[in-house]
Amino acid sequence: MAGVRRVLRMAEGEVIILPSTGTGGWEAAITNTLSPGDTVLAARFGMFSHRWIDMCQRHGLTVQVIETPWGQGAPLAAIAAALRADTGHRIKAVLATHNETATGVRSDIAGLRAAMADHPALLLVDGVSSIGSMPFDMAGWGVDIAVAGSQKGFMLPAGLAILGVSPKAIAAMDRATLPRCFFDFRDMLRTCAAGSYPYTPAVGLIAGLARSIEMLEDEGLDAVYARHARLAEGVRRAVAAWGMTPCAVSPDLYSDTVTAVVVPAGCNGTDLVQLAASRYGVAFGVGLGEVAGKVFRIGHLGMLTDVMVLSGLACAEMCMADLGWQVRLGSGVAAAQAFYRGGTHAVQAAA
Ligand code: PLP
Fold it and tell me: Is the CB of 96 under 6 A from ligand 1?
Protein backbone atom coordinates (compact mmCIF):
# COMPACT_ATOMS: atom_id res chain seq x y z
CA MET A 1 0.00 0.00 0.00
CA ALA A 2 2.88 2.35 0.75
CA GLY A 3 4.29 1.53 -2.68
CA VAL A 4 0.99 2.25 -4.43
CA ARG A 5 0.94 5.58 -2.59
CA ARG A 6 4.32 6.42 -4.11
CA VAL A 7 3.38 5.33 -7.63
CA LEU A 8 0.18 7.40 -7.51
CA ARG A 9 2.03 10.29 -5.82
CA MET A 10 -0.49 10.53 -3.00
CA ALA A 11 0.15 12.95 -0.16
CA GLU A 12 -2.83 11.89 1.93
CA GLY A 13 -5.91 9.68 1.77
CA GLU A 14 -6.19 5.92 1.52
CA VAL A 15 -5.18 3.11 -0.81
CA ILE A 16 -7.78 0.44 -1.47
CA ILE A 17 -6.93 -2.81 -3.24
CA LEU A 18 -9.91 -4.88 -4.37
CA PRO A 19 -9.96 -8.36 -5.88
CA SER A 20 -11.46 -7.20 -9.18
CA THR A 21 -10.43 -5.50 -12.41
CA GLY A 22 -10.41 -1.89 -13.53
CA THR A 23 -14.14 -2.05 -14.21
CA GLY A 24 -14.74 -3.02 -10.58
CA GLY A 25 -12.57 -0.06 -9.62
CA TRP A 26 -14.91 2.27 -11.54
CA GLU A 27 -17.90 0.72 -9.76
CA ALA A 28 -16.24 1.07 -6.36
CA ALA A 29 -15.40 4.73 -7.11
CA ILE A 30 -18.95 5.72 -7.97
CA THR A 31 -20.90 3.58 -5.49
CA ASN A 32 -18.81 4.73 -2.54
CA THR A 33 -19.16 8.45 -3.27
CA LEU A 34 -22.51 9.02 -5.01
CA SER A 35 -26.23 8.51 -4.47
CA PRO A 36 -29.04 7.57 -6.88
CA GLY A 37 -30.09 10.55 -8.98
CA ASP A 38 -26.81 12.42 -8.49
CA THR A 39 -25.46 14.14 -11.59
CA VAL A 40 -21.99 13.44 -12.90
CA LEU A 41 -20.20 15.13 -15.78
CA ALA A 42 -18.23 13.09 -18.30
CA ALA A 43 -16.90 13.41 -21.83
CA ARG A 44 -17.31 10.48 -24.21
CA PHE A 45 -14.38 10.12 -26.61
CA GLY A 46 -13.68 6.40 -26.76
CA MET A 47 -14.91 2.99 -25.67
CA PHE A 48 -13.62 3.20 -22.10
CA SER A 49 -15.01 6.66 -21.35
CA HIS A 50 -18.24 5.35 -22.91
CA ARG A 51 -18.32 2.27 -20.68
CA TRP A 52 -17.87 4.30 -17.51
CA ILE A 53 -20.73 6.57 -18.57
CA ASP A 54 -22.87 3.51 -19.29
CA MET A 55 -22.06 2.08 -15.85
CA CYS A 56 -23.12 5.35 -14.17
CA GLN A 57 -26.40 5.36 -16.08
CA ARG A 58 -27.07 1.76 -15.11
CA HIS A 59 -26.54 2.76 -11.47
CA GLY A 60 -29.27 5.39 -11.71
CA LEU A 61 -26.97 8.39 -11.92
CA THR A 62 -27.76 11.26 -14.27
CA VAL A 63 -24.83 11.66 -16.61
CA GLN A 64 -24.28 15.00 -18.30
CA VAL A 65 -22.34 13.77 -21.32
CA ILE A 66 -20.11 15.98 -23.44
CA GLU A 67 -19.87 14.20 -26.80
CA THR A 68 -16.32 14.61 -28.09
CA PRO A 69 -14.87 13.32 -31.37
CA TRP A 70 -12.93 10.08 -30.92
CA GLY A 71 -9.24 10.89 -31.24
CA GLN A 72 -9.53 13.94 -29.00
CA GLY A 73 -9.14 14.10 -25.22
CA ALA A 74 -11.12 15.59 -22.34
CA PRO A 75 -12.51 18.89 -23.70
CA LEU A 76 -11.34 21.27 -20.99
CA ALA A 77 -13.17 24.39 -22.21
CA ALA A 78 -16.50 22.56 -22.50
CA ILE A 79 -16.03 20.99 -19.06
CA ALA A 80 -15.19 24.38 -17.55
CA ALA A 81 -18.27 25.91 -19.19
CA ALA A 82 -20.54 23.11 -17.90
CA LEU A 83 -19.23 23.55 -14.36
CA ARG A 84 -19.53 27.36 -14.51
CA ALA A 85 -23.15 26.96 -15.60
CA ASP A 86 -23.80 24.61 -12.67
CA THR A 87 -24.25 27.38 -10.11
CA GLY A 88 -26.42 25.15 -7.92
CA HIS A 89 -23.65 22.51 -7.73
CA ARG A 90 -25.89 19.76 -9.03
CA ILE A 91 -22.83 18.03 -10.51
CA LYS A 92 -21.30 15.84 -7.80
CA ALA A 93 -18.42 14.33 -9.74
CA VAL A 94 -16.40 14.80 -12.89
CA LEU A 95 -15.22 11.55 -14.50
CA ALA A 96 -12.10 11.52 -16.61
CA THR A 97 -10.32 8.81 -18.56
CA HIS A 98 -6.66 9.74 -18.29
CA ASN A 99 -5.54 7.44 -21.08
CA GLU A 100 -8.29 6.39 -23.52
CA THR A 101 -7.05 2.96 -24.51
CA ALA A 102 -9.44 2.69 -27.45
CA THR A 103 -7.93 5.66 -29.30
CA GLY A 104 -4.49 6.03 -27.71
CA VAL A 105 -5.31 9.47 -26.32
CA ARG A 106 -3.97 11.04 -23.16
CA SER A 107 -5.96 13.76 -21.41
CA ASP A 108 -4.58 16.65 -19.40
CA ILE A 109 -5.74 15.92 -15.84
CA ALA A 110 -3.89 18.88 -14.29
CA GLY A 111 -5.63 21.10 -16.84
CA LEU A 112 -8.94 19.46 -16.04
CA ARG A 113 -8.53 20.19 -12.33
CA ALA A 114 -7.76 23.83 -13.22
CA ALA A 115 -10.85 23.90 -15.45
CA MET A 116 -12.94 22.80 -12.46
CA ALA A 117 -11.90 26.04 -10.69
CA ASP A 118 -13.62 26.12 -7.30
CA HIS A 119 -16.50 23.81 -8.22
CA PRO A 120 -16.89 21.30 -5.33
CA ALA A 121 -17.41 18.18 -7.53
CA LEU A 122 -15.15 15.21 -6.96
CA LEU A 123 -12.60 14.43 -9.65
CA LEU A 124 -12.64 10.68 -10.41
CA VAL A 125 -9.91 9.54 -12.79
CA ASP A 126 -9.55 6.27 -14.68
CA GLY A 127 -5.82 5.64 -14.85
CA VAL A 128 -6.13 1.96 -15.74
CA SER A 129 -3.88 2.16 -18.80
CA SER A 130 -1.60 4.99 -17.64
CA ILE A 131 -0.70 4.48 -13.98
CA GLY A 132 2.71 2.89 -13.59
CA SER A 133 3.70 3.70 -17.19
CA MET A 134 2.97 7.40 -17.64
CA PRO A 135 3.42 10.23 -15.12
CA PHE A 136 0.52 10.42 -12.67
CA ASP A 137 0.33 12.93 -9.83
CA MET A 138 -2.70 12.36 -7.65
CA ALA A 139 -1.74 15.02 -5.09
CA GLY A 140 -0.46 17.60 -7.56
CA TRP A 141 -3.46 17.23 -9.85
CA GLY A 142 -6.03 17.16 -7.04
CA VAL A 143 -7.49 13.79 -8.02
CA ASP A 144 -10.11 12.45 -5.59
CA ILE A 145 -10.14 8.85 -6.77
CA ALA A 146 -7.59 7.27 -9.09
CA VAL A 147 -8.38 3.82 -10.50
CA ALA A 148 -5.70 1.42 -11.73
CA GLY A 149 -5.68 -2.27 -12.63
CA SER A 150 -3.01 -4.87 -11.93
CA GLN A 151 -2.64 -6.00 -15.55
CA LYS A 152 -1.26 -2.88 -17.18
CA GLY A 153 1.51 -0.71 -15.72
CA PHE A 154 1.84 -3.05 -12.74
CA MET A 155 2.68 -5.92 -15.14
CA LEU A 156 0.61 -8.57 -13.31
CA PRO A 157 -2.24 -10.82 -14.38
CA ALA A 158 -5.67 -9.18 -14.22
CA GLY A 159 -7.35 -9.46 -10.83
CA LEU A 160 -6.75 -6.34 -8.75
CA ALA A 161 -8.44 -2.96 -8.87
CA ILE A 162 -6.08 -0.52 -7.20
CA LEU A 163 -7.48 2.80 -5.98
CA GLY A 164 -6.14 5.94 -4.40
CA VAL A 165 -8.86 7.77 -2.48
CA SER A 166 -8.56 11.37 -1.24
CA PRO A 167 -9.84 12.56 2.16
CA LYS A 168 -12.62 14.42 0.32
CA ALA A 169 -13.77 11.19 -1.33
CA ILE A 170 -13.56 9.38 2.02
CA ALA A 171 -15.81 12.06 3.48
CA ALA A 172 -18.30 11.52 0.62
CA MET A 173 -18.39 7.80 1.49
CA ASP A 174 -20.62 8.24 4.54
CA ARG A 175 -23.18 10.32 2.61
CA ALA A 176 -23.25 8.07 -0.47
CA THR A 177 -26.28 5.78 -0.69
CA LEU A 178 -25.66 3.82 -3.89
CA PRO A 179 -25.85 0.15 -2.91
CA ARG A 180 -22.52 -1.59 -2.41
CA CYS A 181 -21.33 -4.50 -0.36
CA PHE A 182 -18.32 -6.36 -1.81
CA PHE A 183 -16.79 -3.00 -2.82
CA ASP A 184 -17.73 -1.05 0.32
CA PHE A 185 -14.75 1.13 1.23
CA ARG A 186 -15.95 1.25 4.85
CA ASP A 187 -15.48 -2.50 5.33
CA MET A 188 -12.12 -2.34 3.61
CA LEU A 189 -10.84 0.58 5.68
CA ARG A 190 -12.08 -0.85 8.96
CA THR A 191 -10.60 -4.30 8.44
CA CYS A 192 -7.34 -3.10 6.87
CA ALA A 193 -6.78 -0.79 9.86
CA ALA A 194 -6.93 -3.92 12.00
CA GLY A 195 -4.44 -5.72 9.77
CA SER A 196 -7.14 -7.81 8.15
CA TYR A 197 -9.34 -7.86 5.05
CA PRO A 198 -13.13 -8.10 4.64
CA TYR A 199 -12.81 -11.36 2.70
CA THR A 200 -10.10 -13.63 1.35
CA PRO A 201 -7.37 -11.37 0.01
CA ALA A 202 -5.90 -12.12 -3.43
CA VAL A 203 -2.64 -12.98 -1.71
CA GLY A 204 -0.72 -14.05 -4.81
CA LEU A 205 -1.55 -10.87 -6.70
CA ILE A 206 -0.88 -8.64 -3.70
CA ALA A 207 2.53 -10.27 -3.27
CA GLY A 208 3.08 -9.78 -7.00
CA LEU A 209 2.12 -6.12 -6.66
CA ALA A 210 4.82 -5.61 -4.05
CA ARG A 211 7.34 -7.15 -6.48
CA SER A 212 6.06 -5.01 -9.38
CA ILE A 213 6.48 -1.85 -7.39
CA GLU A 214 9.98 -2.96 -6.43
CA MET A 215 10.78 -3.40 -10.15
CA LEU A 216 9.33 0.03 -11.02
CA GLU A 217 11.28 1.69 -8.22
CA ASP A 218 14.51 -0.19 -8.99
CA GLU A 219 14.35 1.22 -12.50
CA GLY A 220 13.11 4.56 -11.12
CA LEU A 221 9.66 5.88 -11.91
CA ASP A 222 11.04 8.72 -14.03
CA ALA A 223 13.12 6.23 -16.01
CA VAL A 224 10.05 4.02 -16.45
CA TYR A 225 8.09 6.98 -17.84
CA ALA A 226 11.00 7.98 -20.09
CA ARG A 227 11.23 4.41 -21.40
CA HIS A 228 7.53 4.40 -22.27
CA ALA A 229 7.86 7.78 -23.99
CA ARG A 230 10.75 6.37 -26.04
CA LEU A 231 8.94 3.12 -26.89
CA ALA A 232 5.89 5.11 -27.99
CA GLU A 233 7.89 7.53 -30.14
CA GLY A 234 9.57 4.61 -31.94
CA VAL A 235 6.15 3.12 -32.69
CA ARG A 236 4.90 6.46 -34.02
CA ARG A 237 7.96 6.76 -36.27
CA ALA A 238 7.14 3.33 -37.68
CA VAL A 239 3.51 4.36 -38.20
CA ALA A 240 4.66 7.45 -40.10
CA ALA A 241 7.02 5.32 -42.23
CA TRP A 242 4.03 3.14 -43.17
CA GLY A 243 2.29 6.30 -44.39
CA MET A 244 -0.31 5.99 -41.61
CA THR A 245 -1.28 8.21 -38.68
CA PRO A 246 -2.23 7.74 -35.02
CA CYS A 247 -5.91 8.11 -34.18
CA ALA A 248 -4.93 10.77 -31.59
CA VAL A 249 -5.33 14.01 -33.49
CA SER A 250 -2.34 15.96 -32.15
CA PRO A 251 1.03 15.20 -30.52
CA ASP A 252 0.02 16.57 -27.10
CA LEU A 253 -2.64 13.83 -27.01
CA TYR A 254 -0.37 10.92 -27.93
CA SER A 255 -0.45 8.09 -25.39
CA ASP A 256 2.81 6.53 -24.26
CA THR A 257 1.18 3.15 -23.61
CA VAL A 258 -0.94 2.40 -26.69
CA THR A 259 -1.05 3.63 -30.26
CA ALA A 260 -4.25 3.25 -32.28
CA VAL A 261 -3.12 3.23 -35.91
CA VAL A 262 -5.58 4.48 -38.52
CA VAL A 263 -5.52 2.03 -41.42
CA PRO A 264 -5.72 3.13 -45.07
CA ALA A 265 -9.10 3.39 -46.78
CA GLY A 266 -10.21 -0.02 -48.02
CA CYS A 267 -8.21 -1.85 -45.31
CA ASN A 268 -9.70 -3.34 -42.16
CA GLY A 269 -7.69 -3.16 -38.94
CA THR A 270 -9.50 -6.16 -37.48
CA ASP A 271 -8.18 -8.35 -40.34
CA LEU A 272 -4.64 -7.48 -39.32
CA VAL A 273 -5.30 -8.26 -35.66
CA GLN A 274 -6.89 -11.62 -36.49
CA LEU A 275 -4.08 -12.58 -38.85
CA ALA A 276 -1.37 -11.59 -36.37
CA ALA A 277 -3.00 -13.82 -33.75
CA SER A 278 -3.72 -16.82 -35.97
CA ARG A 279 -0.58 -16.84 -38.13
CA TYR A 280 2.12 -15.32 -35.92
CA GLY A 281 0.82 -15.71 -32.36
CA VAL A 282 0.99 -11.98 -31.68
CA ALA A 283 -1.74 -9.98 -29.94
CA PHE A 284 -2.61 -6.53 -31.22
CA GLY A 285 -5.84 -4.78 -30.24
CA VAL A 286 -8.85 -4.36 -32.49
CA GLY A 287 -10.63 -1.05 -32.99
CA LEU A 288 -13.60 -0.70 -30.65
CA GLY A 289 -16.94 1.04 -31.13
CA GLU A 290 -16.80 4.00 -33.53
CA VAL A 291 -13.31 3.07 -34.70
CA ALA A 292 -13.97 -0.65 -35.22
CA GLY A 293 -12.15 -1.77 -38.36
CA LYS A 294 -10.69 1.71 -38.84
CA VAL A 295 -7.76 1.21 -36.48
CA PHE A 296 -5.64 -1.50 -34.99
CA ARG A 297 -3.89 -0.95 -31.69
CA ILE A 298 -0.31 -1.58 -30.64
CA GLY A 299 0.16 -1.84 -26.88
CA HIS A 300 3.53 -0.70 -25.59
CA LEU A 301 3.48 -0.76 -21.82
CA GLY A 302 4.81 -2.77 -18.96
CA MET A 303 7.95 -4.88 -18.97
CA LEU A 304 8.89 -4.03 -22.51
CA THR A 305 12.11 -3.02 -24.27
CA ASP A 306 12.91 -1.29 -27.56
CA VAL A 307 13.84 -4.61 -29.15
CA MET A 308 10.59 -6.25 -28.08
CA VAL A 309 8.70 -3.40 -29.73
CA LEU A 310 10.67 -3.96 -32.94
CA SER A 311 9.42 -7.53 -33.13
CA GLY A 312 5.83 -6.32 -32.84
CA LEU A 313 6.37 -3.77 -35.59
CA ALA A 314 7.95 -6.44 -37.80
CA CYS A 315 4.91 -8.66 -37.24
CA ALA A 316 2.51 -5.84 -38.12
CA GLU A 317 4.41 -5.30 -41.39
CA MET A 318 4.28 -8.99 -42.28
CA CYS A 319 0.53 -9.00 -41.69
CA MET A 320 0.08 -5.90 -43.86
CA ALA A 321 2.04 -7.53 -46.66
CA ASP A 322 0.12 -10.79 -46.27
CA LEU A 323 -3.14 -8.86 -46.53
CA GLY A 324 -1.97 -7.07 -49.68
CA TRP A 325 -1.73 -3.65 -48.06
CA GLN A 326 0.77 -1.24 -49.59
CA VAL A 327 3.79 -1.57 -47.29
CA ARG A 328 7.51 -1.97 -47.78
CA LEU A 329 8.74 -4.69 -45.44
CA GLY A 330 11.18 -3.22 -42.96
CA SER A 331 10.17 0.40 -43.46
CA GLY A 332 8.56 0.91 -40.07
CA VAL A 333 11.10 -1.30 -38.31
CA ALA A 334 13.93 0.74 -39.84
CA ALA A 335 12.38 4.02 -38.73
CA ALA A 336 12.01 2.71 -35.17
CA GLN A 337 15.52 1.22 -35.19
CA ALA A 338 16.97 4.55 -36.25
CA PHE A 339 15.21 6.16 -33.30
CA TYR A 340 16.05 3.46 -30.72
CA ARG A 341 19.73 3.01 -31.65
CA GLY A 342 22.05 4.20 -28.89
CA GLY A 343 19.16 4.52 -26.44
CA THR A 344 19.31 3.50 -22.82
CA HIS A 345 17.88 0.15 -21.99
CA ALA A 346 16.87 0.48 -18.41
CA VAL A 347 14.63 -2.54 -17.98
CA GLN A 348 16.02 -4.74 -15.26
CA ALA A 349 16.72 -8.32 -16.17
CA ALA A 350 14.09 -10.40 -14.40
CA ALA A 351 15.58 -11.67 -11.18
N1 PLP B 1 -10.32 1.82 -18.35
C2 PLP B 1 -9.37 1.76 -19.28
C3 PLP B 1 -8.73 3.01 -19.75
C4 PLP B 1 -8.98 0.51 -19.79
O5 PLP B 1 -8.04 0.44 -20.73
C6 PLP B 1 -9.62 -0.65 -19.33
C7 PLP B 1 -9.25 -1.97 -19.86
O8 PLP B 1 -8.50 -2.10 -20.78
C9 PLP B 1 -10.61 -0.51 -18.36
C10 PLP B 1 -10.93 0.72 -17.88
C11 PLP B 1 -11.34 -1.71 -17.85
O12 PLP B 1 -10.48 -2.42 -17.04
P13 PLP B 1 -10.66 -4.00 -16.85
O14 PLP B 1 -10.65 -4.61 -18.19
O15 PLP B 1 -9.46 -4.35 -16.01
O16 PLP B 1 -11.93 -4.20 -16.12
Answer: no
